[in-house]
Amino acid sequence: MKRFDARITALRSVATGYRELRYEWPADLPPPSPGRFFTVRAGGRYDPVLRRPFAFSAWSPGGAGEPAEASFIFQVRGRGTRYLAELDTGDTIDVLGPLGTGFGKPRRGSRPVLVAGGIGLGPMLYLANALSIDARDGLCEAPVLALGFRTASLIPDVAMPEGTVICTDDGSAGYRGTVTGWLEGYDPGAPPYLYACGPSAMMAAVGAMAAARRAPYEAALEQWMACGVGACAGCAVRLRTGQYIKACVDGPVYDGNLVDWGAML
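RESULT FIELD:
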């Protein structure tokens, strides 16, 4: 973990209300693994007071004199994200990271099935690209990335792995219906290893499918992580045992089969 000032290398609109921001990654920090996150001071020195957490959506090593880059996709929703959306290439952001626990590797011979809803696309996209490399090396079957959106205008204009499944609630693009509706009828052709990030109802539905299929399930928890380092306990998540974990330090990636999804609905 390190706090650093990062220069913005690109900032663009990728869908209605969504932006992709790329920034320089320090040479003395290793690449962040998929599923981990960072926080940004999204405003002036004291306003807003709290930093904003974001998941990595990509990382590139640079080369030929160019620095490494990290990127994230965010929705413009409030004061902090509006501040970020109004920045320009060349501006700097105050970054703290990488933080939290990332995704684990699937079992050899299993089919990674990645499910994302809305802004959950970012970490799933990063993971899908990493697992595609593992699949080429024979460490797992080729991953399948399934993305759910309300309508076509919310589908981000970003590069997606070959075979990505698009689902829209209104049928304006791809499969008509929810991403979990598509998943119910999907045959992975190999033992599935489930990963998911998105709204709680979607995560709960994936959890029910994982339990029914007795499949491993790694969930990237979308909790509000105010401090990002376990100090405030504002991101507590209830487990099926009745115990609680802190999403920022025990996660955000956690065994989805252990989470009490009913408590999050």
